[in-house]
Design goal:
With 270 residues, the protein is α/β, with parallel strands linked by helices. It has six helices and 13 strands. Helix content is 28%, strand content 24%. Helix 3 runs parallel beside helix 5, helix 4 (136-149) packs across helix 5 and helix 5 runs parallel beside helix 6 (195-212). It is globular. The structure holds adenosine-5'-diphosphate (ADP) and magnesium ion.
Length: 270
């Protein structure tokens, strides 16, 4: 499949059968067996996420957001149902293929940043580039470009403890984007930040979705960040309870402009 990320909007329709969804889950379920009975962390979730969208995954603590992201990123396997990413059924892939899939296809961003404390900002961004054996000159060029992209051109040699929380998360975002993933999965990336910094991180993600053509699913329980998303999937007790439309499905008339059946476009939706 060619790179359709930069295709004209009519080829990026999230319900266009010619284009595989960036993420499609079918009756996705994950139970954790526990002595007192199984916990149904994710239950029968069927959603389709089109390309180039910023999707907010909303739900209170314990609603299944982390479990859902782990299943989509193939860090965990479903109990039932399937996940496909860009047409590839990752829930069926053998472990040997998952490492390459995660490294090249997905960028992960975590609440606690997950930077290596002894490495500088530039060296943290370099790690994933080394893992896929990018040649040194291209590596240096890409590191510089990525740090500029997240507004940290002047902080390349700072270690994480010499950076603010918001700056550390920017480094983590640059690192996540290093290998040009198609999909960013962010688990409460603003959870440790004050609300203003959190908003600047969410708008950086929004801007990167626009400029890099990447698709992002961002778990958050901060309602003030939801308006920056193109679309919302809401979980409660592991099930989709809301979002922009039936089963969280939404029709896009053009990139970034959700049109929900039965609601005049431009009307406030959340
Ligand atoms: P969220 O990220 O929305 O807070 P989680 O996906 O972490 O939710 O958890 C969903 C549910 O699954 C919760 O009830 C949680 O207690 C349970 N859970 C999560 N991870 C495990 C695990 N490894 N073993 C057992 N139960 C788990
Ligand atoms: Mg969580």
């Amino acid at each position: 499949m060619g790179d359709l990320r930069f295709a004209p909007p009519e080829l990026r329709l999230s319900d266009d059968p010619r284009v595989p969804a960036m993420v499609e889950t079918r009756e996705l379920s994950r139970d954790y067996p526990m002595p007192g009975g199984a916990v149904h962390a994710v239950s029968d979730v069927s959603v389709r996420v089109g390309r180039g969208q910023l999707v907010a995954l909303r739900g209170r603590s314990g609603s299944g957001k982390t479990t859902f992201l782990s299943l989509v990123g193939a860090l965990d396997r479903p109990t039932r149902g399937s996940v496909s990413v860009d047409g590839l059924v990752v829930s069926d892939l053998p472990e040997s293929q998952l490492i390459g899939f995660r490294r090249r296809k997905i960028g992960f961003i975590f609440q606690a940043f997950g930077l290596m404390p002894i490495l500088s900002a530039a060296e943290n961004v370099e790690v994933p580039l080394r893992l896929v054996r990018t040649e040194p000159r291209e590596r240096d060029r890409r590191i510089h470009e990525l740090l500029e992209m997240v507004g940290l051109g002047g902080r390349a040699n700072h270690r994480p403890h010499e950076l603010s929380g918001g700056e550390q998360q920017r480094v983590a975002i640059a690192r996540a984007l290093a290998n040009r993933p198609d999909l960013l999965l962010a688990d409460e990336p603003t959870g440790q930040l004050d609300s203003q910094t959190g908003r600047s991180i969410m708008s950086l993600l929004q801007q990167l979705v626009r400029s890099e053509g990447v698709t992002a699913i961002v778990a958050t329980h901060d309602p003030t960040l939801i308006d920056l998303a193109d679309r919302v999937i809401e979980l409660r007790d592991g099930r989709v309870v809301g979002g922009d439309g039936p089963m969280g499905a939404v029709h896009f008339v053009q990139s970034g402009a959700p049109e929900v059946p039965g609601r005049p476009s431009g009307a406030p939706d959340r």
